[in-house]
Write a structure and sequence with these properties.
Rossmann fold; seven-stranded parallel sheet; 12 helices; alpha/beta
């Protein structure tokens, strides 16, 4: 890229999975990148890049303002993913108040564009048998879903600042898979399937997003996307059973034998969430996870394909490319 076309770009939450994939792409394109994260040091993959790092907390407005100052573009990636009831206050502070800080600081600094990272979790649940769109009205309020509620409220903070003149757009990925993913739950699933332990799966289904697809969408949003709009960057909609069968077939493994009864899963999630922490264990399964895993949470990426040039990778191709990464990492 010609230096005259390079931009000053801030990436909050840069040390996370998405940030560690996005930041190198931005620097390779010739942009001047500033990262913002609670960690004083950067992961090795980012530390070797020519960038500027600000250490700070997203819930500190002054620290956020200092990081935003002088930027053309702000990618807001920082957030807390939790489906635990006890984490609501922490998630609200990070996802809602933190987003408010980033949006208000960006508005005050006359940033040219903000790309906010939301989630399909902020959409709600489509009607049974339907694939939802960005026009869906949030329908999960009052159900005590920590991540869904706080990401929905974060979007309201973005739109409030848009109404005041902030040029922001919202991207909504699904469950992101790909190289560099360190989510322990994802690796536990791959490990269980590779060892033949996963004989049952929940009855629901979710949106999957390939990390490469998501990163390219974020790059396109430097100059694509309509202000105040949100975009589902979804690579595939699959039931848990179908996703597991694709993985099993491509890796010559046995697929799941049955769907876990919904009432049993809810009971199990409730018990492990309340009991295992007493023994120092932080379980991946909670009551919220158990309930959501019974829903068909499917959303179309048609709008993203049309307006931000999103190009979804078939799920089988994602699995074929990433299986060695997930399976090898589980053996290390």
């Amino acid at each position: 890229m010609n230096h005259s076309n390079s931009l000053n770009i801030l990436v909050t939450g840069a040390t996370g999975f998405l940030g560690q994939n996005l930041v190198p792409r931005l620097t390779n394109l010739g942009h001047r990148v500033r990262t913002f994260a609670r960690s004083k040091s950067l992961p090795s993959g980012l530390a070797k890049l020519d960038l500027e790092h600000y250490n700070g907390d997203i819930i500190d407005f002054e620290q956020v303002s200092n990081a935003v100052n002088g930027m053309d573009i702000v990618y807001h990636l920082a957030g807390l993913v939790s489906y635990k009831k006890r984490d609501f206050d922490k998630a609200h502070a990070t996802n809602v108040l933190g987003t408010r800080n980033v949006m208000q600081a960006s508005l005050a600094a006359n940033v040219s564009r903000v790309i906010h990272t939301s989630s399909v979790a902020a959409f709600g649940i489509p009607k049974e048998g339907e694939i939802g769109s960005e026009e869906i009205e949030y329908n999960l309020s009052g159900m005590g879903l920590t991540y869904c509620d706080t990401k929905h409220l974060a979007e309201q903070e973005v739109l409030s600042c848009v109404s005041s003149g902030l040029p922001a757009i919202i991207l909504n990925p699904g469950i992101i898979f790909g190289e560099g993913d360190s989510h322990p739950h994802h690796h536990a699933i791959f490990a269980a399937m590779s060892k033949g332990w996963m004989i049952g799966v929940p009855s629901g289904g979710v949106t999957f997003s390939d990390i490469n697809d998501v990163v390219e969408a974020y790059i396109h949003c430097l100059n694509k996307g309509k202000i105040g709009e949100r975009y589902a960057v979804v690579s595939a909609n699959l039931s848990f059973k179908d996703a597991a069968l694709i993985f099993a077939k491509l890796n010559s493994l046995n697929g799941p034998l049955f769907e876990i009864p919904n009432k049993f899963l809810i009971g199990l999630g409730t018990v492990v969430e309340n009991v295992l922490p007493l023994f120092g264990v932080d379980p991946p399964l909670t009551r919220q996870v158990a309930w959501l895993s019974q829903q068909k949470i499917f959303f179309s990426s048609d709008k993203a394909c049309a307006e931000i040039n999103f190009r979804p990778t078939p799920f089988a191709d994602t699995v074929r490319r990433t299986s060695n990464y997930y399976l090898h990492r589980n053996k290390v």
